[in-house]
Amino acid sequence: ARVPPGFRGCVQLQLVSHKDLPITLITGSRICQLMLFPVSSGLSGVRRSQVSVRPYFSPIMEDDELIPLQQNRRGLIIGVVGTLSSGKSLLAAYLARVHGFVHLSLSTPLYSEARQRGRPTTVLELQELGNSRRHAGGGEVLVDRLRGSIQALQSSSDLVLTGIKNPQEVAALRNWPNFRLIAIDAPADRRYERYQDAERGGETSTSRDAFDALDRRDRGEGEPAWGQQVKACIEMANRSWSNDGAIRELYDKVDNYLNELRGELL
């Protein structure tokens, strides 16, 4: 594509696969080339071809007429938010294993970025990366990275989303009318025990003071608006449960809620 003199904005790059193979993009890979050419004279007057200075997604999901037409072809989209070691991953795995949900996480690109940088995939490192991405690209930037996958998969599958940390992410996900948010919590002592259990077999062990510091930050204490804000996300949930008893009790609550939702969305 040619970029005319005076252009200001985002250059669109479209990749198309003409075979039955996906295109795998790796951060840092060279997928395009920029060639510069001299012009005979300078620009005169006003700039032309001005567009938005950052990428944005089509507002098609907000079309009031399209939503009813697609409603019967959509699966459920369940978001799971919760405090550290409250059982979010267990709940997502249960939905995938027993109910056939496809599990997506807003944290997946953060794990990938940490590994590419040779950094440990600790809670602290992921907190830093998540804050950095939201600060640079807006509070909904991690949702935007999953938007294509959500749009493609929801027509044939139920989805469960984890890694939700900021109210702007919840607001962006609620553009899908079939999205519901579940929040889970548990007493700090129980959560710290689970956190230690998850670390066993590793090379490090987190002290209770260090865990409490991570937990306070995760909830949003001392965090900017674009930072970790799990407490605010929990307050936005459609259902909130405590995971302080047997895990089967939590699963039963989820089963009942799914039956309720499917009746509501029919």
Structural features:
266 residues; alpha/beta; 5-stranded parallel beta sheet; globular
Description:
This protein is of the alpha/beta class and 266 residues long. The chain is built from ten helices and five strands; from the N terminus they run αβαβαααβαβαααβα. It has a five-stranded parallel beta sheet, sandwiched between helices. Helix 3 packs across helix 4. 26% of the residues are buried. The model has no long low-confidence stretch (mean pLDDT 85).
Topology:
Blueprint: H1 66-71, E1 77-82, H2 88-99, E2 102-105, H3 108-116, H4 123-137, H5 141-153, E3 159-162, H6 167-173, E4 179-185, H7 188-199, H8 208-219, H9 230-235, E5 239-242, H10 247-265
Parallel strand pairs: 1-3, 1-4, 2-3, 4-5
Quick description:
The chain is an alpha/beta fold and 266 residues long. Helices cover 42% and strands 9% of the residues. The model has no long low-confidence stretch (mean pLDDT 85).
The SSE string, one letter per element, is HEHEHHHEHEHHHEH
Name the poorly predicted regions.
Answer: none
Gap between N and C termini: 46 Å
Strand content: 5-15%
Q: Gyration radius, to the nearest Å?
A: 22 Å
Mean pLDDT: 85
Spatially, the strands of the biggest sheet line up as: 2-3-1-4-5
